[in-house]
Amino acid sequence: MMRRRRLLRGRRGDESGATIVEFAFVAPIFFLLLFGIIAGCYLVFQSSSLHDGATAGARMASIESKLLQPQANGTFCESGSPVPIEKAVAQASSLVTVNPAPLCATSSGATELTQPTVPGDVNITVTCGGSCAAPQTTAVSLALTTKGLVAPFGLTYHLSATSQVPVLSP
What we know:
The protein is an alpha+beta fold. Helix content is 38%, strand content 24%. The chain contains three helices and seven strands, in the order ααββαβββββ. The strands form two sheets. Strands 4-5-6-7 form a four-stranded antiparallel sheet. A hairpin with a 5-residue loop joins strand 1 and strand 2 (76-78). It is elongated, with a radius of gyration of 28 Å. The model has no long low-confidence stretch (mean pLDDT 83).
């Protein structure tokens, strides 16, 4: 009887395995917080990259010598002189994929240049103050639909940025 009491008393003070149990409670919360911070930082970085791209695109649109050039298929596309707007956006937005399709309109009096939309890429829209043939201002809008990095944050996010610049007179 005495021996049994001594054994029970000895086991009550034994805390081996308590660390594992505490870790099992704390680890999921810690890793959720850690990966949430990483995913949030990645989304902020993408948003910042979009703003840089919109600024570079608007600047390029404002200095192009001729914004619209007639094409053989009857559309009017951006001239790309000195650099195409989509290329300027891609260079400024280094870690997001930019839609490489040219910016075009259906008529010479159009006030907006667009690309065919590509899901998962940054899609560009150029809005001209006045007509795109002779704009007073240009606004470049970028839109990106992206997925989160980790399972609980694997939601779809819609990010966008816009920059407007007056057109420089030659």
